[in-house]
Amino acid sequence: MATATGPVLTDAQFRKIAAIVHEDSGIILSESKRSLLMARLNRRLRGLSLGDYGAYCDRLEGPDGPQERRHLLSAITTNVTAFFREGHHFDSLAREVLPPLAPLARAGRRLRLWSAASSSGEEPYSMAVTLLDAIPDAARHDVLILATDIDPEMVARSRQGRFSAEALSPVPAAQARKYFQPCATGFEARPEVRQIMRFDELNLHGDWPFSGKFDVIFCRNTAIYFDAAARQRLWLRFGQAMVEGGTLFIGHSERLDGPAAALFQPTGTTQYRRNATPAPART
Predict the structure, then answer these.
(1) From the candidates 69, 112, 149, 274, which is the catalytic residue?
(2) pLDDT tens sequence across 36-50
(3) Hey, which of 26, 50, 82, 204 would disulfide with 226, CB 3.0 to 4.6 Å?
(4) What are the CB-based long-range contacts (under 8 Å, 24+) for 168-177?
(5) What is the DSSP string of 143-206?
(6) Which domains does the chain have, with CATH numbers?
(7) What count of other Cβ atoms lies within 10 Å of the Cβ of residue 78?
(8) How sure is the predictor about 283, in pLDDT bands with cuts at 50, 70 and 90?
(9) Of 21-35, 45-59, 188-202, which gets the smallest average pLDDT?
(10) What are phi and psi of 144, to 5 degrees?
């Protein structure tokens, strides 16, 4: 069955796709998201030359299912971002978080920052220019910003580090001149910025292929799409992945709840410090 705008998504097909999305990512697709899902997936169906959602559901559960599930998640995730979005977080990063870490990095201490839902790259590059203002010689030390996203297309865009003049407009002029250079499509991050950054595809709901701990984690306006169990599990995993005294930044409409709340102390607007882990009791 189809309409002038494309195939119709039946109730059963919607429930099946929503269940797959939830299983793979923790994201909840409520009934109110059905039209949005159709708008985004109809283009995918045309690209695959599939006539209806029944065929698409079969594909999701067939031999090509694992790869197609990645495309599904790419289609339904929202990539709204901007340079220095929620600017108070970057003010805090510059004025409170990085100054005490700079001498530690220069003394040989490992320093790691993570943009855990990096979208098209504006957030991690905002982190990078803030870091380089605080530690201009960061590339000479064990300093790294990890930028990850569930969407491989967004990861590829982030890795390129290219932005239009409009996208770059929130960056103060002095920083824009210092850290970006003209290119055919607008501007691109200079080599010294790219040198301290790594990009990778990562599903926050899945395995995390690293063992070292982070000093700073940005994960903003992502957990709002998860159910309570997935959200609270994510907060707890962040707590376990951070050094004592590390800083977690979350989105303006998010609150740190569940068991992880005991691991953190609020230090600002949607900003939290990782508490010290109590020493084990002596017996």
Answers:
(1) 149
(2) 889 889 988 998 999
(3) 26
(4) 168/83, 169/83, 170/82, 170/83, 170/84, 170/85, 171/83, 171/84, 171/126, 171/129, 175/129, 175/133
(5) EEEEEEES-HHHHHHHHHTEE-HHHHTTS-HHHHHHHEEEETTEEEE-HHHHTTEEEEE--TTS
(6) 2-76 (1.10.155.10), 87-274 (3.40.50.150)
(7) 12
(8) low
(9) 21-35
(10) -155, 140
Pairing verdict, β 111-115 and 143-149 = parallel
**40 is an active site residue:** yes
**Residues 9 and 37: beta-carbon distance below 8 Å:** yes
Residues in the chain: 283
CB 113 within 8 A of CB 82: no
Residue ranges in the chain assigned as alpha helix (H) = 11-25, 34-48, 53-60, 65-76, 87-92, 98-106, 122-134, 152-160, 165-168, 173-179, 191-194, 228-240
24 has catalytic annotation:
no
Condensed to tens digits (0 to 9), the pLDDT of residues 88-127 reads 999 999 999 999 999 999 999 999 999 999 999 999 999 9
pLDDT tens-digit map of 38-87: 988 998 899 899 999 999 999 999 998 988 988 888 787 766 789 999 99
Choosing from 34, 40, 106, 237, the catalytic residue is 40
Residue 218's φ and ψ, nearest 5 degrees, are -105, 125
Residues with Cβ within 8 Å of residue 220, at least 6 apart in sequence: 85, 86, 89, 117, 123, 249, 250, 251, 252, 254, 270
> How many CB atoms within 10 Å of residue 34?
15
Alpha-carbon gap, residue 126 to 192, rounded angstroms: 14
